[in-house]
Amino acid sequence: MAHAQRAAVFDVDGTLVDTNHLHVVTWWEAFRQAGHDVPMHAIHRAVGLASTDLVAHLLGDDRDQDQDAALSAAHKALYGQYFDRLPALPEAGALLRRLHREGWTVVLATSAGGAELSALRRAIDADDAIAATASADDVDQGKPSPEPVEHALELAGVPAERAVFVGDTVWDMRAGSRAGVRCVGVLCGGIPRTDLEKSGADTIYADPAHLLASLGDGPLA
């Protein structure tokens, strides 16, 4: 008898592709061009939020919200310069292909869409292993709302208890926890272990290569 379907849901930025600091620098520059002095450390902690949420988190609710779209557009243009050379994290593609071979339904849950998502998928280079993508364009609320993870589960056709969510930020862990899935944290996005644990990470690995090497006895066994 075939075993019941299982889903492995992955965040992308900072989890499978080494882009968090590119986002930090390009958001910093977008803010700078608009006259805002935002420390890079603060931006790093906010990466993983959808654009408007990131701006609100960093500039506050009393900001001039008419500027939000221009800030997002500036970040998008600056970050777009890197599309042809986004670096996959070690063994990211190999991890997804191995899980696919072992019967997992692999779904990406990301706030990226359009050309950005295409560039990320090219970097990972494991399209044959990716069953579906839950993009920010498909949901009303980004992480830490559970919506992106719930949408990924719908696409996979799997209940929360048969899924694992892998991510690198506090927002990922909160979203996964609220969606009722087992959360696995990775440190390659630069967020401290304790922060991920406090936000709901069940287990923590260094990066995709570490997760791949530990498949036999980890949550993805």
Automatic annotation (TrEMBL):
Which SUPFAM superfamilies does UniProt cross-reference here? Answer: HAD-like
- Cited Pfam families: Hydrolase
Spell out the InterPro entries in the cross-references: HAD-like_hydrolase_sf, HAD-like_sf, HAD-SF_hydro_IA, HAD_sf, PGP-like_dom2
Instruction: Give the source's domain of life in one word.
Output: Bacteria
Protein name, entry field: Haloacid dehalogenase
Please name the source species.
Streptomyces lomondensis
